[in-house]
Design a protein that fits this description.
heterodimer, A: 439 residues, alpha/beta, Rossmann fold, Ubiquitin-like (UB roll), de novo design (two linked rop proteins), 3 domains, four-stranded parallel sheet, 17 helices, disordered N terminus, B: 68 residues, alpha+beta, Alpha-Beta Plaits, two-stranded antiparallel sheet, 22% helix, globular
């Protein structure tokens, strides 16, 4: 049964969508349509000293725009470009189009719908840092997407658009393989698993060269900023969080999917954009499986910016917003996700290999058995696991669990005193790859 | 600039030599991996820390300049 509790006409904001602009339909936008929609790629095409000067101006514009990375960390893109450009050695550009997060679909959608916008961004990034190689990494399992991207790259080569070819790279479709040091190690001929830093990727990455790694969406924004300027970019969003962002909305909404919103849009309004609520929500998962649960009272008015999410102990991540219905069990949902994350360990670091399964057991004990000692056990394990891996995998899982204990505090007490709640019988809300076999 | 002790968790296989040599700093977790505090090394402990670094059978331990 689908009942919209709150309905509201969708407000079309002026100038939106930006990244998702184009002719109606869902098919890939071809090169000609792309240039009709956005205008041609403003690549100065200079070499030598003149290249360096115009590249500096491009970085200035990106820096002034206030664009931040849309992959999760939210680092200022202009500063990253400048830092890579200043390194010794010829830089390399690596576009990350591999979406490791099961609850996110935005990079896949952007790449299949508007491949040329991302490819424009790669070309501009390569020009800005003076790179002579550029890679675009997508998951090995995304055969159809890879074909579309290959066709797009061929069309560009025939039209002579890019100064250097953009090379497609297929990486294993695993959570930890989408991490930037894992892709770099894969490019270097090793396994697609995270590495220990230092050296950091932007200093020594592909073949020991400075490597600029950007998320696909970030690059697409760059392609628009280069065309329309930094002021135009900031005309959407709020001070300190400029522009638009792609969000993947799921859970108890009428039309789950990917939407382009202004940065700083309150979470409640984001849920309205996705067709409104179908059930009364109790909490919102923000930031994805490395993110945090927020009680609905905290989340509803909260603007989607890195700063606002951080102020309540959350994370914006890659723009995931999932509404958990009142009749679901947040602890059971968390238990399933942590079990999945434990299975997704790269298997390299002891505390992650042994700690995450133990943490998953403790959360499952609390959710399904109402074990008395689970809460203490979870606290102890969270302390032991966080910050002790080479990558952020264990930290992310820990953050999610601790946020669940806060957001579902009353639930946790109920489970401990009276056993599991009726919510554990509801079908799960959060997608976990391959979990059909488990249930 | 202060120096800190760091363990490369990928290289570490939990031999436990470091915790044996440097019990004042390093504890073992329930699975036999060292818990290395991210605190600046004092002058009196620095030589002991270097000895632990040199004794790690898989070279997983190092003294590094604190980076922010």
């Amino acid at each position: 049964m689908t009942v919209a509790l709150i309905t509201q006409p969708i407000v079309r904001q002026a100038g939106l969508p930006r990244l998702l602009a184009g002719p109606p339909g869902r098919r890939a936008i071809g090169l000609l349509e792309h240039e009709e929609t956005h205008g041609p790629l403003p690549l100065p095409g200079l070499r030598g000293r003149a290249q360096r000067d115009s590249a500096d101006r491009l970085i200035d514009v990106i820096e002034r725009s206030g664009l931040t990375g849309r992959g999760g960390a939210g680092f200022p893109t202009g500063r990253k470009l400048r830092s890579v450009a200043a390194q010794r050695g010829r830089p390399v550009v690596l576009a990350n189009g591999s979406e490791g997060e099961p609850a996110s679909a935005k990079d896949r959608l952007l790449l299949s719908r508007s491949p040329h916008l991302v490819l424009d961004g790669i070309s501009l990034a390569a020009y800005a840092v003076g790179a002579d190689r550029a890679f675009l990494a997508v998951h090995r399992t995304e055969g159809r997407l890879a074909k579309r991207l290959e066709a797009a790259a061929e069309a560009r080569a025939a039209a002579g658009i890019d100064m250097i070819p953009i090379e497609l790279v297929a990486i294993p479709a695993r959570y930890v393989s989408s991490e930037q040091s894992a892709i770099v190690q894969h490019l270097n001929g090793g396994p697609a698993l995270p590495t220990f830093s230092p050296p950091r990727t932007h200093e020594r990455g592909y073949n020991g060269r400075p490597t600029l790694v950007n998320n696909a969406e970030t690059l697409a924004h760059m392609a628009l900023i280069a065309r329309h300027g930094d002021q135009w970019f900031r005309s959407a969003g709020v001070p300190g969080a400029a522009g638009t962002m792609l969000v993947t909305v799921g859970g108890a909404v009428a039309r789950p999917g990917v939407y382009e919103i202004e940065m700083g849009t309150p979470i409640g309004a984001v849920l309205m954009t996705a067709g409104g609520l179908t059930e009364r929500p109790q909490a919102i998962l923000t930031g994805g499986y490395f993110g945090t649960w927020l009680p609905i009272e905290v989340a509803w008015q909260l603007p989607l910016t890195h700063r606002d999410l951080k102020s309540v102990g959350g994370a914006l991540g890659a723009g995931i917003v999932v509404a958990l219905p009142d009749t679901s069990c947040g602890l059971a949902e968390t238990a399933r996700v942590v079990r999945y994350l434990a299975g997704e360990t790269a298997g390299q670091c002891g505390p992650c290999v042994f700690g995450l399964p133990a943490l998953a057991d403790a959360v499952a004990d609390l959710a399904y058995q109402g074990e008395q000692r689970s809460l203490r056990q979870i606290d102890m394990l969270a302390d032991l696991v966080a910050g002790r891996g080479a990558c952020k995998h264990p930290d992310g899982a820990t953050l999610l669990v601790l946020s669940a204990l806060t957001a579902f505090e009353a639930d946790a007490a109920w489970h401990q005193q009276r056993g599991p709640c009726y919510g554990i019988r509801r079908p799960p809300i959060l997608p976990v790859p391959g979990d059909m076999a488990d249930w | 600039m202060s120096e800190i002790l760091r363990v490369n968790p990928i290289a570490c296989t939990g031999h436990g030599v470091c915790a044996e040599l440097l019990p004042e700093l390093i504890e073992m977790d329930p699975w036999g991996y060292p818990i290395v505090p991210r605190a600046a090394l004092t002058d009196d402990i620095l030589p002991l820390a270097r000895r632990a670094v040199a004794s790690c059978p898989v070279l997983a331990l190092s003294v590094q300049k604190e980076s922010h």
